[in-house]
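explain this.
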Amino acid sequence: MNRSATATSPIRHGRRVLILALAPAQLLDVSGPAEVLAQANRLCDRPSGEVGMVYEVEIAIVPAAGKASTSAAVAVAPGRSLQELLADGRELDTLILAGGEGARTRHDESELKDAVRALAARARRVASVCTGAFILAASGLLDGRRAVTHWRWCELLARRFPAVRVESEPIYLHDGRLWTSAGVTAGMDMTLALVEEDHGHSLALAVARELVMFLRRPGGQSQFSATLAAQTAADTDMSELLAWMADNLHRPLTVDMLAGRTRFSPRQFARVFVNKVGVSPGLKIDQMRVEAARRALEDGRRTLAAIASSCGFGTEEAMRRAFLRHLGTPPGTYRDRFRRRPEEIAQTRRLRQPEDARS
């Protein structure tokens, strides 16, 4: 930008965002939200002649002796120290605590907790990515609040901080001025939601398109796929069977039919399935059908009856009962809450088209 333009154009001062992490930090927990905000700066429409940023982002990593600054061993400059940040005195719009090994193992450091409480008191909004929730919890900021972290660490967070209402399912949660997200890339989904809250849907959609992200995975959407988890836990035979089941949920999947696709007799099959997958065949089919129906409801183009049929429930009432068992909410309510907007669906279709079909 040339000096004359700077001298004559009004300057727009952005919302101050501090991304704070403890070494070694998860690299994407830091860079993911930073990139979302950087793209918001680049893509935001400004009044004619105005220059500046909508977000002023600062990254600070509290170092640890003998440790790399990030999990990927990519060196990130530590930025200002905690003492310098506290001495600054200016208000913050958003404080984001990034996760990683450092957050899990160093969150009880007294100096850190005091600093986080002081910085949070100066911030309009406080958020965490992944195990950054441990830092917020240790500082007492999540007491009595709903919070989420990476599914692998939810149980530990709940056990270590019983005053926190830990939820393992959502990819991010919003409780008052506090936001928490699940693991790694979920921090980008949460940051997109922050951008949308601040500057509207159009800018968030533009950022998502630029980053080839889906705008936007709803915060209440599950961070954990039952189908993927089962395939990961199973041996080769069961993994192939589960993949086939996911493609054939519309069929009447009986134990005899499933056993016939393995090397086991029907008598052995149910016992081996429970041992390998962790639940009965009937329960797993139910979970997979609910998961498939959720995706269809979020797309929002088909009727409840059509979705119930294609996912193997047979009737809307059977699907409703399954949703109440697994999610505690009926399908219609789920669709109203999580259905994607038409422009999001159109974006998905464009991204799925071959390049030559778009031209």
